[in-house]
Specification:
The chain is an all-beta fold and 103 residues long. The chain has a single domain (4-95), classed as Beta Barrel (OB fold (Dihydrolipoamide Acetyltransferase, E2P)), CATH 2.40.50.140. It is 0% helix and 56% strand. The protein is built from no helices and 6 strands. Strands 1, 2, 3, 4, 5 and 6 form a 6-stranded antiparallel beta sheet that branches. It is globular, with a radius of gyration of 15 Å. It starts with a strand and ends in an 8-residue tail after the last strand. The model has no long low-confidence stretch (mean pLDDT 90).
């Protein structure tokens, strides 16, 4: 899979969640500025959770990400459901919002 990127305005930064002593994650949300704007959620894992620390709400950013997918069944008799996660691994600031504090 090639590198996936998208640009948008940072609209929400979540708290770090410690799932276990060895696994941490953090969510953030952007809004694209396309003709039909989209609100998109991304996750950061492990050491990458700090990528968002210096950013502010309203910053214009470019996200490099991978798509993770997994299938889940409630039981053998049920139809499987597929869950997708957009996992960010690099963030570039395009335009920094100077007047808004983080979070």
């Amino acid at each position: 899979m090639s590198n996936l990127t998208i640009q948008g305005e940072l609209i929400r930064i979540g708290d770090t969640e410690e799932i276990s002593d060895k696994f941490k994650k953090r969510e953030f949300v952007i809004k694209t500025e396309d003709r039909y704007p989209q609100t998109i959620s991304f996750e950061l894992f492990q050491e990458n959770i700090s990528l968002i620390d210096s950013l502010n709400i309203k910053d214009q950013i470019e996200i490099y990400f991978n798509i993770n997918g997994r299938e889940w069944r409630k039981s053998e008799d049920t139809q499987p459901k597929v869950f997708n996660t957009l996992v960010a691994w690099k963030i570039n600031v395009i335009n920094k919002e100077l007047n808004t504090p983080p979070f």
